[in-house]
Amino acid sequence: MSLLGLNLTLLVGPSVAVPAPASFMEALQSVEVTHNEEGRSGFQLTFGVGRSGPLDLLEYGLVAHPLLRPMNRVVLVVTFNVVPQVLFDGVITHRTLNPAQQPGTSTLTVTGEDVSTVMDMDQKVHEHPAQVEPIIIAQLLLSYAQYGLVPAIIPPPSLDVPLPVYRTPVFRGTDYAYLQSMAERYGYVFQVTPGPAPLMNTAYWGPPNRLGVPQRALSVNMGPQSNVDSLNFQYNALGTTLVRGKAMAFGRSLPVQTFASLRMPPLASQPALVSQARVRTSLLEDVPDGAGYIAAFSRAQGQTDSSTDQVLTGTGELDAMRYGDLLRPRSLVGVRGAGFGHDGIYCVRNVTHSIRPGEYKQRFTLAREGLGALTPVVPP
Predict the structure, then answer these.
(1) Domain extents for the chain?
(2) Three-state secondary structure string covering the chain
């Protein structure tokens, strides 16, 4: 499938994906890919199917094709302005056949999720005596090397080593659930991002990404320089949560209290804790039995950090050809033309790519901790 300045390549196979046959690309009607900041990402391919010869008397050709079996691997590569970028890498989880009454209108829809799906299939009992989270995460990811996972682990600011004489943490569940549980303790995220090369994936465990060079700015209400079809903002005045409670340290109960988000670097000049007159206060919860003061404070701070991530959100849609690039999730982007309170740098939380012949749309959600740009001018 190709547009002016854009070409889509489909790779599919049991374990190592290879370029799809020409018949697949001829039958491909639309592609939809959704990347999320939290949880798994997904894709959907819609093919036109029909019976065109004696070999198709028993079954539609694409329906019976072995390359489209469940749990086969699918890789999508978009070449935009001569630069190839991996759009998605995942496995097939669902198929939907829609036989139609009119000739040539039957469709086969293939749906799947990113490769982290394979981490969420086997229930296990996890025991890692005297090991901290970064070491446990590295061990878990090593067992999925066949999916090209490259670990990117950011250690939390404080670690509480579980001494076996006092406690040994035990988790019952899948590897994916364990990775997510460890991330939630610190207000972190675990996400698998396709690339940087085909058949490679980056397994990131750490705080939401706020580093790097922002992408091309989203421009609204700027006449011929506007590149966004629609963009609207919502401010959640009750989103921020401070946490208080008590935890054991040095044989006594000491208070645990959070006062502000520690997300760095800041993205707003008027963060919610400063601009609001009141915030919600929550009691400290879900601290493992026997955990120390450090673990309790890390859990409390993580709850406060997570609560401020989406105080100000923006949702919109753009035309990729007019924007001139792919809007990448889990990174930064600038907004200009919306006024000082809403201009500035945002985290891109999710992006949905909708591709069909002659059209490439991207729907997106942006977020940050409050109002106000940090700079008077947002670079284009």
Answers:
(1) 119-206, 241-308
(2) CEECCEEEEEEEECCCCEECCHHHHHHEEEEEEEEECCCCCEEEEEEECCCCCHHHCCCCHHHHCHHHCCCCEEEEEEEECCEEEEEEEEEEEEEEEECCCCCCCCEEEEEEEEHHHHHHCCCEEEECCCCCHHHHHHHHHHCCHHHCEEEEECCCCCCCCCCCCCCCCEEEECHHHHHHHHHHHCCCEEEEEECCCCCCEEEEEECCCCCCCCEEEEECCCHHHCCCCEEEEEECCCCCEEEEEEEEECCEEEEEECCCCCCCCCCCCEEHHHHCCCCEEEECCCCCCCCCHHHHHHHHHHHHHHHHCCCEEEEEEEEHHHHCCCCCCCCEEEEECCCCCCCEEEEEEEEEEEEECCEEEEEEEEEECEECCCCCCCCC
What is the tens place of the pLDDT at every residue in 250-277? 667 778 888 888 888 999 999 887 555 4
State which residues of the chain have pLDDT below 50. Answer: 277, 289
Give the global pTM.
Answer: 0.88
What CATH number belongs to 119-206? 3.55.50.10
